[in-house]
Structure of Delta(24)-sterol reductase:
Amino acid sequence: MVPLLYLGGLVVLFLLWIKVKGLDYVIVHQRWIFVCLFLLPLSVIFDAYYYARAWLIFKMCSAPKLHDQRVRDIQRQVRDWRKEGTKTYMCTGRPGWLTVSLRVGKYKKTHKNIMINMMDILEVDTKRQVVRVEPLANMGQVTALLNSIGWTLPVLPELDDLTVGGLVMGTGIESSSHIYGLFQHICVAYELVLADGSLVRCTEEENTDLFHAVPWSCGTLGFLVAAEIKIVPAKPWVKLHYEPVRGLENICKRFTEASANKQNTFVEGLQYSLDSAVIMTGTMTDHAEPDKINRIGLHFKPWFFKHVEGYLKKDCVGVEYIPLRHYYHRHTRSIFWELQVLTHNRFYLCLIGSGKSGGQVNNSKFLLCFSNHS
Ligand SMILES: Cc1cc2nc3c(=O)[nH]c(=O)nc-3n(C[C@H](O)[C@H](O)[C@H](O)COP(=O)(O)OP(=O)(O)OC[C@H]3O[C@@H](n4cnc5c(N)ncnc54)[C@H](O)[C@@H]3O)c2cc1C
């Protein structure tokens, strides 16, 4: 009873404080409250639901059957738009808060929203070395499935939430792009619903002009309903080599050399000031030296860019073995270094796992991440 009274008292004080300060003030200046009490629990439930759903659907093999039905539904929406007299433009009905971009797409309010509810992995064909996916399948989902069966995408953009549709229609790059190119370069076929409601498939040989026009078209040519993407065999570990480099010219030189060496499966540079950076090169491997294993994706580990900065501060090179999936999503927890500007609240930083309960985040204004696509 007594704890409940305390809790009630706290809630009343909290509400009074909001009344005095104003809701706007609290949300802007004390955003950790909103994030910790609402956003984080909701995100956990949201992610758990979608991972469980994806797993179940793939195990039951129900995605391919549902796919044709979903395509027909999109065709119906497009034809309805035509029947209504094509009064406004069409756009995907995905709400802005679901995308990785912070942009608020005001056009979604005035355009005809076509609901594309397609978020499944349809088929993994290891003979052709191709995976067929729906446009809202995201990178976290793709690595969870492919890596567990020994395969991966040659170019796997880091953030879990990036979708195949966004990466094809927008753009995608990764630390393996010096070998494989951009995300679109590993795609072998697209299936689209066009503005007349027809369904077309395009590849290097079939509807070639459309195939080459789709990447970066931002949905202006049609609605993507499926993509076939190359896959390559994966190994469980990434052997990552860290090298601090000083001087802008040196940084460019070392990065160019590292990218030119195709033995390096992964090449990435994190730049912490105009003339200091850490260049990382990596290869996939089956075995790891136990004393050099670093599971960087675990909740209590430091954010990746902070961990890398350690090599710069100590001015020493280093080698680590990182589980493949942890490597791919190394920037997810901290959204590169963007999350540090959200709040410095200790409780919040503990919950999201910055690996530092002291809230000592880097205030560096100069941070740059580079991967090479020559
Ligand atoms: C914080 C941040 C971090 C990023 N990190 C990376 C990174 O690590 N690696 C990387 O390569 N890129 C990165 N990007 C860029 C990112 O890849 C692109 O912005 C990408 O387009 C976003 O994908 P999304 O899934 O959020 O798609 P959305 O923003 O939803 O879509 C992007 C575009 O594609 C169109 N589109 C999406 N689906 C369809 C469809 N089915 N049919 C037709 N059109 C469609 C949309 O209309 C929109 O024009 C980052 C961007 C941000 C903001």
Observations:
- The CA atoms of residues 250 and 288 lie 30 Å apart.
- DSSP finds 13 helices and 14 strands in the chain.
- Residues 92, 94, 99-101, 116, 135, 157-159, 162-163, 165-167, 169-173, 218-219, 223-224, 335, 338 surround flavin-adenine dinucleotide (CB under 6 Å).
